[in-house]
């Protein structure tokens, strides 16, 4: 099993964050999203071969993602979907933005913080809208909201990739999406309630991060 192999390899320093199913689905979507960009036709009536390649890339994105999600570790996926729901932690964080005293205290994040939940929902809606608007433009031979939807998706993705690759305090999460596990000390600081759930540890971070 993934977690055991990570523990054996990394000892106590790392804790599993994303299983094989999540990682495969994530990088599959990323690769075919990039393929759809590289094959983007300028016009629905333009070069047919380019349009066919573009539609194939988008089809591979959605079919592959569905195969991985339906055939993969459903329990882990269900847990991630639950973790993406807005809950009291998000409400406490929103209150803490304006709060004083007790209300301004940093919250203890679960697996995802409010920013990640908003990003994940926005990306899901935008990718589905891209697929539908692209199909509409291909059939009608026109150019409607597909290009502006793509621009909106790229804006959200720019923030997502910045946090994953550039921002020093969130960059350690990239290891979780590549190798599966993250540094326990980082997790305790950024996602303490999640760490308590998956890997109870007596040591607690005295200074959790205040926001997403
Ligand atoms: C995640 C999936 C997709 C991405 C990232 C994507 C991206 C793009 C981009 C960047 C363009 C160029 C826009 C411009 O010229 O300003 C484009 C054009 C186009 N795409 Fe997609 N696309 C996706 C899915 C689809 C699908 C599923 C179809 C058809 C079934 C499709 C059909 C078209 C057509 C017909 C055009 C040219 C007309 C237009 O710009 O609306 N696309 N796409
Ligand atoms: C080079 C491009 C990308 C990089 C480096 C990247 C990196 C990451 C990382 C490191 C995580 C895990 C965050 C954590 O464990 O806290 C993550 C999660 C996620 N990624 Fe990406 N990603 C990329 C592209 C994409 C694309 C194209 C999509 C969808 C269109 C996407 C959707 C998501 C979602 C929904 C999550 C879960 C929620 C979240 O943590 O924000 N990512 N990504």
List strands and helices in order, with pairings.
Layout: H1 2-10, E1 14-16, H2 20-38, H3 48-71, H4 74-83, H5 88-98, H6 114-140, H7 146-166, H8 173-178, E2 181-183, H9 184-190, H10 192-198
Antiparallel strand pairs: 1-2
Helix pairs in contact: 2-3, 6-7, 9-10
The protein binds protoporphyrin IX containing FE (2 copies).
Could you provide a short overview of the structure?
This protein is mainly alpha-helical and 212 residues long.
Protein model, in words:
With 212 residues, this protein is mostly helical. It has a single domain (2-198), classed as Transmembrane di-heme cytochromes, Chain C (Fumarate Reductase Cytochrome B subunit, Up-down Bundle). Helices cover 67% and strands 3% of the residues. The chain contains ten helices and two strands, in the order H-E-H-H-H-H-H-H-H-E-H-H. It has helices at residues 2-10, 20-38, 48-71, 74-83, 88-98, 114-140, 146-166, 173-178, 184-190, 192-198; strands at residues 14-16, 181-183. It has a two-stranded antiparallel sheet with strand order 1-2. Helix 9 (184-190) packs across helix 10. The longest helix is centred in the middle third of the chain and has 27 residues, at 114-140. The protein is elongated, with a radius of gyration of 20 Å. The two termini are 31 Å apart. 17% of the residues are buried. Mean pLDDT is 89; it is low at 1-10. One protoporphyrin IX containing FE binds next to helix 2, helix 6, helix 7 and helix 8.
């Amino acid at each position: 099993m993934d977690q055991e192999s990570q523990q054996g390899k990394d000892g106590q320093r790392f804790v599993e964050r994303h299983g094989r199913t999540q990682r495969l689905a994530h990088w599959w979507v990323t690769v075919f999203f990039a393929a759809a960009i590289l094959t983007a036709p300028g016009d629905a009536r333009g070069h047919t071969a380019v349009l066919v390649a573009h539609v194939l890339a988008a089809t591979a994105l959605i079919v592959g993602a569905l195969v991985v999600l339906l055939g993969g570790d459903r329990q882990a996926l269900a847990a991630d979907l639950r973790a993406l729901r807005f809950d009291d932690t998000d409400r406490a964080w929103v209150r803490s933005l304006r709060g004083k005293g007790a209300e301004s205290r940093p919250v203890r994040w679960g697996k995802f913080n409010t920013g990640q939940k908003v990003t994940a929902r926005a990306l899901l809606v935008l990718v589905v809208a891209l697929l539908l608007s692209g199909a509409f433009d291909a059939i009608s031979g026109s150019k409607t909201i597909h290009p502006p939807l793509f621009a909106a998706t790229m804006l959200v993705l720019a923030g997502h990739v910045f946090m994953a690759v550039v921002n020093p305090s969130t960059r350690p999460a990239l290891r979780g999406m590549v190798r599966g596990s993250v540094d326990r000390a980082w997790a305790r600081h950024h996602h303490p309630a999640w760490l308590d759930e998956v890997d109870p540890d007596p040591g607690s971070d005295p200074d959790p991060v205040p926001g997403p």
